[in-house]
Design goal:
Keywords: FAD, Flavoprotein, Membrane, Oxidoreductase, Transmembrane, Transmembrane helix
GO molecular function, one term: FAD binding
Distance between the termini: 73 Å
Helix content: 25-40%
CATH superfamily of the largest domain: FAD/NAD(P)-binding domain
CATH class of the largest domain: Alpha Beta
CATH topology of the largest domain: FAD/NAD(P)-binding domain
Radius of gyration: 23 Å
Shape: elongated
InterPro entries: FAD-bd, FAD/NAD-bd_sf, FAD_monoxygenase
Strand content: 15-25%
Number of domains: 2
Family: Belongs to the paxM FAD-dependent monooxygenase family.
Number of helices: 14
GO biological process, one term: secondary metabolite biosynthetic process
Length: about 475
């Protein structure tokens, strides 16, 4: 019927944090969604996850319920949740004087202001549990491992195939199936190196420590405020999560050796067993604070190989009515703490474009809807790919800055803080309104209001306060 709002059926492959946020944003706009998750239930691996104020703003534009979910489980930095300490602290974890028995505090190198509650930490599983509350059972299909699809052509729905032999139909497919994305493999081809993540030659040792034990060993301030301890070839980060009941600890270590894989393409074996003794050997001779943190960790640990898409970035995120978003498109190492936030930006872009597609198709045929979805995905690719791939590259480089090996800065912390500040601002103060305007202009076929540099533009903000000690 002319003028009736057309129905658009979207399949989301993967039920992680970004997949659920994508689904909530689409459902808020009246778009029908089914999440196809290969596991028997929603689950998240890893421990801590953090969102900047910029990501929270994107969430509010997608669906205020997403912000409510984050608020329910987020732990602001600092001792008082109502008066958060909105700074990232950088400390020299390596250089100290062993002859000075009183010198147990690693030196403060700089402070980076994040804005009010600008970097709140969450436990991944807790956040997932909150988001799931907004997903109706009818919008989820479990035990569905995507293996491919066929496209019958304009006016027809895509046919999705799953490993159990079943099929489903949808007008559009969004792959949110993470770093090992099958959708990306289907989109780019099984023989393309861009279809698979690659080892970044960094490993991460992760653990959650009870806050009572952390406070006893480190003191209240250290335990309840985010700290980054830097040094040659490694760095250690910790921040509170789970309402301040746990301390999330991540130690990053360079690893020049190839990572052993059970399958060169599947790359499923991204973890290995490790011990606290392994880390104690890495941080032997570092300052007492770092060694105290390491001593809090359990005897047995998991060592996570950090894979990303830096070496072989995807040449496109879309193929007609199929696209990838979040880690499935641009898996990043975690050193900027921005991978999930960039995925939220992807979700806002796709939800905005698909809402425009349904509006434009209000009096159109199903064949026209097919073309509108393809146009929406093409605009998404043009607008989102430069910024998200910049993050992947910058995340590797900022790790080198933390570990005193980035050639322009090395261990000169005036230069390091200037570089970290510029990169962080480019990530945190992204021009969301500019992105939305560019999406609308691209979809409407108009000249971009701001050519390609806008894709990574930032809003001018007051200079951060930086304190540097000799």
């Amino acid at each position: 019927m002319a003028g009736a709002q057309p129905q658009l059926d979207v399949a989301i492959i993967g039920g992680g944090v970004v997949g659920l946020i994508m689904a909530m944003g689409l459902m808020k706009r009246g778009i029908r969604v089914v999440i196809y998750e290969q596991s028997r239930e929603f689950r998240e691996i890893g421990a801590g996850i953090a969102f900047t104020a910029n990501a929270i703003k994107c969430m509010s534009l997608l669906d205020p319920a997403i912000v409510a979910a984050v608020d329910a489980v987020a732990t602001p930095n600092g001792e008082d949740a109502d008066k958060p300490n909105d700074y990232v602290r950088f400390h020299d974890g390596y250089r100290w004087d062993p002859a000075d028995a009183a010198d147990t505090e690693d030196k403060l190198l700089g402070l980076l202001h994040t804005g009010y509650k600008g970097f709140q930490g969450c436990h991944r599983a807790h956040l997932l549990d909150e988001l799931v509350k907004s997903i109706p059972p009818s919008a989820v299909a479990f035990c569905k491992r995507f293996v491919g699809h066929t496209d019958p052509g304009p006016g027809e729905k895509l046919v999705l195939q799953f490993a159990d032999g079943t099929t489903a139909q949808a007008d559009a497919v969004i792959g949110c199936d993470g770093i090992k994305s099958k959708v990306r493999q289907v989109l780019l081809g099984a023989d393309s190196p861009a279809s698979y993540p690659h080892f970044s030659h960094k490993v991460a040792y992760r653990a959650l420590v009870p806050m009572a034990a952390a406070e006893a060993a480190l003191g209240t301030f250290k335990a309840r405020n985010q700290h980054m301890h830097t040094g040659p070839g490694a760095h250690l980060l910790h921040f509170p999560v789970a309402g301040g009941t746990l301390l999330n600890v991540v130690a990053f270590v360079a690893d020049a050796e190839p990572w052993p894989l059970t399958d060169a393409h599947a790359q499923r074996n991204m973890t290995a067993d490790a011990t606290r003794g392994d880390l104690e050997a890495v941080f032997a001779g570092w300052c007492p604070t770092v060694r105290h943190v390491v001593a809090l960790l359990p005897d047995m640990l998991s060592k996570w190989a950090l894979f990303d898409t830096h070496d072989h970035p995807a040449p496109t995120y879309v193929c007609q009515r199929v696209c990838v978003a979040g880690d499935a498109a641009h898996a990043s190492s975690p050193h900027h703490g921005g991978g999930a936030g960039i995925g939220v930006e992807d979700a806002l872009a796709l939800c905005t474009l698909l809402e425009m597609a349904t509006g434009a198709a209000a009096a159109a045929s199903q064949a026209d809807m097919t073309a509108l979805v393809e146009r929406a995905f093409a605009v998404y690719d043009v607008v989102r790919r430069p910024r998200s791939q910049w993050l992947v590259a910058s995340s590797r480089e900022v790790c080198d800055i933390y570990e005193w090996s980035y050639p322009p800065t090395m261990a000169d912390w005036d230069k390091c803080m200037a570089e970290i500040t510029a990169r962080s601002h480019r990530l945190w103060y992204f021009d969301i309104d500019g992105m939305l305007a560019e999406l609308r202009a691209g979809f409407d076929g108009e000249a971009s209001p701001n050519p390609s540099p806008t894709l990574v533009q930032i809003q001018v903000q007051p200079l951060v306060q930086i304190q540097v000690q000799p």
